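User: Sequence in, structure out. Go.
Assistant: Echoing your sequence, followed by the structure tokens.
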Amino acid sequence: MEIRYTLRLPRDVVTVPLVRTICRDAMNRLGVTADCQGDIALALTEACANVVQHAAGPNEYEVAVAFIEDTCHIRVVDRGHGIGLTDSNRTKTILDRDNGRGIVLMRLLVDRLAFESRPEEGTVVHLQKRLELQEGALLATL
């Protein structure tokens, strides 16, 4: 069983809560637990916020969400300059800086985080998390 949807949005701060709300609503309707929804929504928010804040190039980005069996797969794609290896491999937050926490948060919230970066072609952020379902969840019956 697979459920997929893709959003193509302008790279604007107002789109971040929109993406989060659409994803949470889908998970809620499918019967994903509130805690699991929160983890995925926060990781997705951080990925989208990074695109809005740091990407350059065309003024749009794409979010693809797939619920495949019991796992949520998300891709956030921008067409900017790509992410540096130092940033994509970050595992610790530097507390005296105001930025750089998003990647660390994403690593803590999802089961798998990966980056594809091609200079001048953009960055793809892959998020993957096993879904925790409520009793009688629609997703479990499909």
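User: And one key feature?
Assistant: Residues 88-96 have pLDDT under 50 and may be disordered.
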